[in-house]
Each structure stands twice: as C-alpha cells, then as structure tokens.
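User: Some background: our group keeps a shared notebook of sequences we're curious about, and every so often someone picks one and asks for a predicted structure to add to the entry. Today it's my turn. The entry only has the sequence so far, pasted here. Could you supply the structure so I can complete it?
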Amino acid sequence: MSAMKRKAPDSREQACMLCGRVDAGLNICGHRHLRNGICAHTFCLFLANGLYQCGNIAQGIWGFLPMDIQRTIKQASQKQCFVCGERGATITCVETGCERSFHLPCASEGECVTQFFGMYRSFCWEHRPRQAVQAAPEQDTTCVICMDPVGDSTSYHTMLCPACRHAWFHRGCIQGQAMCAGILCFQCPICRNKVQFCSEMSIMGIQIPSRGPAWENENAFASLQERHQRCDVSECLCPHGREQARGQGPWQLLLCRSCAAEGTHRRCSSLANSADTWECDSCAGVGT
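Assistant: Of course. Here's the predicted structure to add to the notebook entry:
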C-alpha cells in the first residue's frame, strides 16, 4: 500500500478525482482545484494519460474541459496502480507495450519518473531514463545537501551532477532544492553549472518551478532591511521606555558601530553629546 493515504471517510475536504488523495504534497501534485464539480491537482491533470488542454486557459481547469476529465476518470477506473494496488490510476508509462499505470503520489515509491515539461511524459521503474554515469560513488561519499551517505552506486534515489561529476545527492534533496530555488536560481550545488544541470535534472524527473526563488516571494530577508530600534543596556534610564528614541539629545539611540544589532540611549551609557559612535559589550570584548 502506498504511503500516500487516500481521503478519510469522514473528511470534509474533497479528494483529487485523478489520484484519490486529499493530502498529497503541494510539491508533488501542485495545487488542488475545485471547479464544475471536479476536484483535481494541477499535475495530475497534466500527466494523466490521454488528457489534453482542448480549451483556453480560462475554460475548465487550466484548459482541461470537464467532459474530458470525466472521460479520463472513467477510463482510469479500470486501471490498477502497480504501486499501491488500487484502481483509478490515470498515469501510464509511455513506453510502447508497457501497461504499468500509477497514481502521481505513488510515483516516487514505485521509482517512476514523471517529466514536468514538454509532453509531460511518465515512465515506470523499468523504462525510466537513467543517468549515463560510468563511475560509482567513492566509499563514504555523502550527499552535498544533507551530508548523509549516498551509497555505493547510482540508483533512482542517488544522482550525480552531469557537468562536474563530483556532486552526488539524493533525489529527494535535490528536488527540495529545486522547489526552493526555482528555475532562476537552480544549479549544481558544487560547480554552479545551470544549463546542463537543469536540463538533465528535468529529464530525470526533478520538478523545477517556473518562478524565482521562494525566499524572494516569502520576503525571507525583510528583517535585514530593518534598523534596530531598542536600547539594550542592562538598565535603561529613558522614562518613555527602551523603544523610545529622539533624533538628538540624551535619548538619541546609537547603534553598535560593529554589529548594529544592539543599541543604547546616550544617557544610558553616559555618552557625551559629541560622541557619535558606540560599541556594545560583545563587540568590545568586555568580560572576555
């Protein structure tokens, strides 16, 4: 049974009608859409066998029309996922003559490869693309991302940078980096190659979002643009409190000239009006 659980009987959330999951990770299946009585994940739609965008982007779900989605669901009801054993598998290996079908959330467990570009092709474990690597990892080689051992050979879960051939990493680790970096910043962690690296990772089934890095969208470095605004001496003398500061005079706030992470009112540190710099105890080495 796949580790990805299907919708619980008493769950109020509707499961994707293409994979049967309500709790599939966003990084695996994409957003879950509910329109025209149909619930489906973005990439479950794009990777479903025989399902095409026959409408414009505003019609149905991303151009996939309701009648086409319903037809695909009906056809998939007769197909059994070779990974979890349940029916409703909408993805079939593209290899001619191969009948293996699977749900998108089951792909990793079944060591399948799904390509998130171009024709959105899918491959079972037997027919998936493999890296052209001659040498195996040296003994005690670790993943350059998580620093855990990568094993003694390439495999579905162990990958190598095609450019420098020195950076070994786990599939899950490099996928996490791709989701964080986006297409604009995704590159080899060691040699920084971008073109060859992104091309091969995409072919090997790594999903690379067509956006900038997540840390820019989430404004992760906003705090670096904020100026410290608090008196940090052990006994603040300002009658209006530590957060109060004037533009000049005894209650003017000076920041540490070295770290700018601590501040003091002039009077709280007995600074003369002519003093224009100050250094906190940590930077000045007091007590060391």
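Suggested note for the entry: Residues 116 and 207 are 6 Å apart (CA to CA). The first strand starts at residue 32 and ends at 35.
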